Amino acid sequence: MIWVLLLLLQSVDLSWTFSIVSQKPADVINVKQGESFQLMCTADNYYEWCTFSVKERICEYEWKRDPWNITEAVCDDFQGRAEFQGTYNYYECGIKVTSATAEDSGLWKCDMEKYTRGGTRGQGAQDFKTFQVNVEVPTTTTTTTTTTTTTTTTTTTTTTTTTTTTTIITTTTTTTATTTTTTTTT
C-alpha cells in the first residue's frame, strides 16, 4: 500500500507549488530617517510578479519575456526612491528604498507569483513574507532658557566735612636804626 502511494506522489505534477524560501532581513530592520534600506525575497522558482507594500503603498515589479528582464510596473507611491534589487536567474526580488521617511515604518509585505507561460495575473502559485521596518525619526527638543538679571544699585553718600583754619599772623617789625658816626680828627 505504501508503494502505491509513493508511485502516485512521484507521478503528481508539483509545478503549481511555489514558495519564498528566504527573506532578508529575517527579522526587524531599524533605519534612521534619510538613510537607505533593502528588503529581499528569494523564491524556489521563477516568478512573474513581485510586489512590495506597506500601508496601502505599493511597488510592483514584473518579469517580461520581451525585453527579457524585470520591469517596474507600478511604483509611484515611493516618488523615485525605490529601486529593484536582485538577480532574476537566482529567483531574487528585492527593493532598495532611499531617503527613508516616517511613512516607511511598518509591516512590509513581499508578494511573489510564480511565472506561468501564457498565463495571466493571478493564475500562478503565490507566496508572501513580511518584514518589520522601523524608521527612527530624530526627536526635536526645545529648551527655553530664561535669564533674569537683577541689578542692585547701592548709593553711598559720604559727607566729609573738612575744616581748615588758617591763622595768619603778620608781625611787622619796624626797626629804625640811627647810626651816629663821630669822626674825630687829630
Would you write up a description of this structure?
There is one protein chain. This protein has 186 residues and is mostly beta strands. Helices cover 5% and strands 37% of the residues. The protein has one helix spanning 2-11, and strands at residues 20-24, 28-32, 37-43, 47-54, 57-64, 69-74, 82-85, 92-97, 106-114, 126-136. A six-stranded mixed beta sheet has the order 2-10-9-4-5-6, with no helix packed on it. A hairpin with a 4-residue loop joins β5 (57-64) and β6 (69-74). It is elongated. The termini are far apart.
Bin the helical content: under 10%
Number of helices: 1
Secondary-structure content class? mainly beta
State the distance separating the first and last CA atoms.
Answer: 201 Å
Let me know the average pLDDT: 80
Largest sheet: 6 strands, mixed
| Helix-strand string | HEEEEEEEEEE
Q: Please count the beta strands (DSSP E, at least 2 residues each).
A: 10
Shape: elongated
**Strand content range:** 35-45%
Q: Any idea what the radius of gyration is?
A: 52 Å
Enumerate the strands of the largest sheet in spatial order, edge to edge or round the barrel: 2-10-9-4-5-6
Low-confidence stretches: 3-14, 158-168, 170-182
Topology (elements, then pairings):
Elements (H helix, E strand, L loop, with lengths): L1 H10 L8 E5 L3 E5 L4 E7 L3 E8 L2 E8 L4 E6 L7 E4 L6 E6 L8 E9 L11 E11 L50
Parallel strand pairs: 2-10
Antiparallel strand pairs: 1-3, 3-8, 4-5, 4-9, 5-6, 7-8, 9-10
